[in-house]
Design a protein that fits this description.
Layout (H helix, E strand, L loop, with lengths): L10 E2 L13 H10 L4 E3 L9 H11 L2 E3 L1 E8 L2 E8 L6 H24 L8 H8 L7 H10 L6 H9 L14 H10 L3 E4 L9 H13 L4 E6 L4 H14 L2 E5 L36
Length: 288
């Protein structure tokens, strides 16, 4: 259920639109969030802020408070890590330049995926995947949809199992900057750096603690404690890690598309007591 520490609010600080690898346009995403009872939403598309303007217009119409957000890819000790930036100035020039570099990396990766999947026989695979992304950089979900449309696979699950999942031809790694550099981009734009979905990296507890320590040393201020699809054990572990490292706590559904009840906008388990919410420390604090 959607219950945050303040029961008057429903806060979701991690979701995606067609500006990256989500299925809904920014406007549709905000409309769905409002229907789900979300009062405060951060649109965190991968390495871009392209959807924020459209989302802001829809949010104003629907009475949803929109917090600026993005999800940036980086590397830590050979692991690809995601850092969510929240409550930053999206017009900051240095930050925009950094996002342009990230965008170029994503286009290079998309071209490589299309080349790797050439044996599927789909004509203009990159162009069709780009169309699925509404002209933005296509991700693996967009390529999966094209493979479905062309009859190469039955569904998205089969697309990932055969072509796009880990170790398959379309599993192309991109070049990403280091963890510290990405954290500094967010801080330079006046935002809060949040370690995204820590348990999804499938690290041992000791390695995850090392990641959190390095993230904090780099200037990171918060970590996602409550996310969709995690166990109660993970929730408790992350809450304790958050307390121990004296980090702020964030939460988000990581919503990408409708039809997955385990990953729906606003459906986030209540965070345990004794941890300080990141939204209390926004420029315009929420519920505090």
């Amino acid at each position: 259920m959607t219950i945050t520490q303040e029961t008057d609010f429903c806060i979701d600080l991690h979701c995606h639109s067609t500006a990256s690898d989500g299925a809904l346009s920014p406007q549709e995403l905000v409309e769905r969030a409002a229907t789900q009872g979300v009062t405060h939403l951060a649109l965190t598309d991968h390495d871009t802020v392209a959807g924020l303007s459209a989302a802001a217009l829809s949010a104003a119409q629907k009475g949803v408070t929109l917090i600026t957000g993005t999800e940036l890819s980086c590397v830590w000790r050979s692991h690809t890590i995601h850092i969510v930036g929240l409550d930053f100035d999206p017009e900051n020039r240095d930050f925009r330049d950094a996002l342009a570099v990230q965008n170029a990396n994503r286009w290079a990766r998309a071209r490589a995926i299309a080349d790797k999947l050439g044996k599927t026989g789909v004509d203009d695979l990159l162009g069709k995947a780009t169309a699925k992304a509404d002209g933005d950089v296509p991700g693996r979900p967009h390529f999966a949809r094209v493979l479905m449309d062309e009859g190469v696979v039955r569904d998205s699950a089969q697309a990932f199992k055969r072509y796009l999942g880990q170790g398959k031809p379309g599993d192309v790694r991109a070049y990403w900057p280091g963890l510290g550099e990405v954290v500094q981009w967010i801080l330079g734009a006046g935002g809060v750096a949040v370690l995204a979905h820590p348990r999804k990296y499938k690290m041992t507890a000791s390695r995850l603690r090392a990641l959190v320590s390095d993230f904090k040393q780099a200037g990171g201020k918060a970590m996602e404690v409550s996310t969709s699809g995690q166990s109660s054990g993970d929730l408790g572990f992350l809450a304790e890690l958050c307390r121990r490292e004296k980090l702020l706590a964030s939460q988000g559904s990581d919503f990408h598309f409708p039809g997955a009840p385990w990953c729906e906008l606003g459906r986030i388990a209540k965070m345990p007591d004794g941890i300080e919410p990141v939204w209390h420390h926004f420029k315009s604090p929420v519920g505090h």
